[in-house]
Amino acid sequence: MADSKAVRGDRTNARPAQKRTSPATFYRQVVAELRKVVYPTRDQLTTYFIVVMVFVIVMMAIVSALDLGFGKLAFAIFDGSGKK
């Protein structure tokens, strides 16, 4: 294993210990980050809602149709009524 490219040396102090953030500093940083957030307008929110609902309804229709089709196919194959 002489050709190994593994890191050698003491790994106990790989990173210096960082001081913990106080709750007040954390709160100020959270508020500062939330001020950077760009919230959608009412028109954008309405458009996004409609797009999501249409997508969900279309996907429900596709999954329902596939479920119905595969269910009928399974009953046709495994009916057991003896029809030939």
TrEMBL record:
Q: Does the keyword Transmembrane helix apply?
A: yes
Q: Which UniProt keywords apply?
A: Cell membrane, Membrane, Protein transport, Translocation, Transmembrane, Transmembrane helix, Transport
**Primary site of residence:** membrane
Region spans: Disordered: 1-21
Which sequence ranges are marked TM in the entry?
45-66
Q: How does it sit in the membrane?
A: Single-pass membrane protein
Q: Where in the cell is it found?
A: Cell membrane; Membrane
Q: Which InterPro entries match?
A: SecE_bac, SecE_sf, Translocase_SecE/Sec61-g
Basic and acidic residues: compositionally biased ranges: 1-13
Q: Is Nucleus found in the keyword set? A: no
* Role played: Essential subunit of the Sec protein translocation channel SecYEG. Clamps together the 2 halves of SecY. May contact the channel plug during translocation.
Family label: Belongs to the SecE/SEC61-gamma family.
Instruction: Specify the protein name.
Output: Protein translocase subunit SecE
